[in-house]
Amino acid sequence: MNDNIYELLNSSSFNEEEFDNIETDLTDLEVKQLKNNFRKNIKVSKKKRFIYIAASLAIFITVGTFTVKPAFAQSFIESIPVIDSLYEKLGYYKEFKDFSSYVGLSQEKNGYKFTIDKLMADDENVMVAMRIYKPGLNIEKNKDGKNINDFMITPYLPSSFGLFITADNHSKIIDDNTLLVVTTFKTDPSKKPPKRFDLSIEIHNIPANDVSVKFSLPVSREKIIDQTIAKNSIGTISLTDSCKIKIDRFKTSPLGTSIKFTLPSNAKDFENFSFYLYDDKGRIYETKSCRSQDEKNFICDFTNVEKDAKKVYIMAYKTNLLDTLNDKEKMVKYSEEMLIAYNLKTLKNFKFDGIGSINVTNIKKESNNIKFYLEINDPKNLLKHQFPIWLQNKDLNNTFSLDDFSFYKNLDSSNKNDYIAEFKNMDSNEEYLYSVNTSPYKIIAQGEPLEVTLK
User: Fold this and answer.
1) Cβ(290)–Cβ(272) below 8 Å
2) pTM of this prediction?
3) Is the pLDDT of residue 35 over 50?
């Protein structure tokens, strides 16, 4: 993609004055009070945890009330195919670009240009995709050599304060001047957003605090409803006679795959519980994150289930994670060779005492994809609950998004233990190292798989 495309994208604009009939049910004073109350709540609430990755974009939530009717500018409509191409080349929207709504609203302030490209929502997530442009944006450093352009994104949701409790944030540097940001805000498991609502987001540059802009955005999840598979009251997974997990819901949509579950009332160690999925095609879907506001209702998100899956199986297990955090002596000990990062020319058999082995039999790097061919001897299914391979750059920093990782049976092999771990959208010019994923905790209980029929 050449510089002319970036220039076209950064020059496309949607004048905010073309929005009409903007109504608000809150006064400026009420909005300010709500913001202040939320900021106070952030300081004292340990449950409202947010994820920070890649470009160190901070995400917080507050509320307001706005109604807006968009009118698309012709220049933005003409640039839609280019925008799709940009996001697809960076690994986003390949499967669900038809289910997001184009926004095309742009603002310029203090040398920055902020452009909201797309919105997408289901009944558990709201995704906002934007570009931030400023000459030299990604090369400005402070005296410690760190990027000085970090941002805080603050949504206001009408009449639904407390709806969101966490967020996933992905960002990629397009060039020296442009940052692409995809933020997915995640709801409280006990709540559900309406089919349509108005969302206003405020963006601050921190720590410089030299720019602040607001956007009013209409959100609808109607576009995605027909492409969402939801199954309720799935069943129960028994880990022990006294420990049963109720699976209340399974959902998969273009925005993600998740389960909603309830732990036993006497379970106080919820951090010890975890899950993974596998389908009838032999593909394994790993946990991305779990969340709860009340420690009773939980949602666990997974890498997205493929469209051709007819059945999915939910695996639940319990670990001694909390014990290892409180007492390092209870951590699983590994030999030094298990902890070393290897170059992509190294093929090696990694043995886990008393569990099984992961044998790296071949590694293929083609363009921006890297495939690890693995023979996994795992008679107790204790090695498939996590990503088997971890990929790092030469500085030993993790360099991939969980959405760019696939783990599946090698259907071209007659050996039932042969799998492929695939990393997509990697930098073809980067020198990568890999290591086997070693977990410091033990699995102490595991239930039988719970079947979910999708088709």
Assistant:
1) no
2) 0.75
3) no
